[in-house]
Amino acid sequence: MGQPVVHFELWSKDPERISQFYSKVFGWKITHVPEMNYHMVETGGEGGINGGIMKPQDGPWPGNMALYMQVDDLTPFREKVKAAGGKIIVEQTDIPGVGSLCLFEDTDGRVLGMWQQG
């Protein structure tokens, strides 16, 4: 069985502006979560996925969007990424009470994420 895409993120220098854009265009319900400095996106689509909008922290954030694939354990999948020629960008970030994520670069230079439910 494959690993499904379960979340997307749009990275923006102005999350409020881009939130308003997607809300107006597609009718997405976007809720700002100040304590996480994050905007939760509910697309409302049947069978679709939800996501988030955030302002990247200082440092290297190649690209401006990521898709997240769900995995049962980040550790072996980080090794699979490296063995297949990819590069780990963010080893692991824990979101307390929710799960953990890892960012990686594929062999074309795209930055994507993996998500382990908490």
Approximate strand percentage: 35-45%
Distance between the termini: 20 Å
The CATH level-2 architecture is identified as Roll
Integer-rounded radius of gyration = 15 Å
Task: Write down the secondary-structure element order.
Answer: EHEEEEHEEE
- Helix and strand content put the structural class at alpha+beta
| Order of strands, widest sheet | 2-3-4-1-5-8-7-6
Principal-axes geometry comes out as globular
DSSP helical segment count: 2
Number of domains: 1
User: Mind summarizing the main beta sheet?
Assistant: 8 strands, mixed
How confident is the prediction overall: mean pLDDT? 91
Indicate the CATH class. Alpha Beta
State the fourth-level CATH superfamily: 2,3-Dihydroxybiphenyl 1,2-Dioxygenase, domain 1
Structure commentary:
The protein is an alpha+beta fold and 118 residues long. The protein has one domain: 2,3-Dihydroxybiphenyl 1,2-Dioxygenase, domain 1. The protein has helices spanning 15-26, 74-83, and strands spanning 5-11, 29-33, 38-42, 51-54, 65-70, 87-95, 99-105, 111-117. Strands 2-3-4-1-5-8-7-6 form an eight-stranded mixed beta sheet, covered by helices on one side. The protein is globular, with a radius of gyration of 15 Å. The model has no long low-confidence stretch (mean pLDDT 91).
